[in-house]
Amino acid sequence: MTDKPTVLFVCVHNAGRSQMAAGFVRELGGDDVEVLSAGSAPKDAINPVAVQAMAEVGIDIAGNIPKVLTVDAVRESDVVITMGCGDACPIFPGKRYEDWELDDPAGQGIESVRPIRDDIRGRVEQLLSELIAS
């Protein structure tokens, strides 16, 4: 067992928002937080514009692979952050759940994805300040 909190980010395709959020947690949270990401209907690859947006801030998510959401991933997590996956996420008592309303970067250009990325970064920084400070 670990004392580190585990955060799971869930969006439909696990190709944009959840991958960017996981990238920020890995970068900003370091070894203090475990991070998982998954999708209710994952794509075959990460959104290339999301990869580009994250590369602009020095975070490489290009090698990540979208994963399907499993009950075990939710069970293993202390905090579950959903991003537009609706009712696809199983609910377990004792877990902290948040729903982050964010625009979907799918099909958008880099100018539209940068503000989404920056919004995610701010939310991740707030989340980490709560998880690591405790």
Task: Write a structural description.
The protein has 134 residues and is an alpha/beta fold. It has 4 helices and 4 strands; from the N terminus they run E-H-E-H-H-E-E-H. Helix 1 packs across helix 4 and helix 2 packs across helix 4. The longest helix has 24 residues.
CATH superfamily: Response regulator
Question: What is the CA-CA span between the terminal residues?
Answer: 18 Å
The biggest beta sheet is recorded as: 4 strands, parallel
Strand % is: 15-25%
The CATH first-level class comes to Alpha Beta
Shape, principal axes of CA atoms: globular
Give the structural class. alpha/beta
Major beta sheet, strand line-up:
2-1-3-4
Number of discrete helical segments: 4
> How many beta-strand elements?
4
> Radius of gyration in whole Å, from Cα?
14 Å
Could you name the ranges where pLDDT drops below 50 across 5 or more consecutive residues? none
Order of helices and strands: EHEHHEEH
Characteristic terms for this protein:
alpha/beta; 4 strands; 4-stranded parallel beta sheet; 16% strand; globular; Rossmann fold; 134 residues
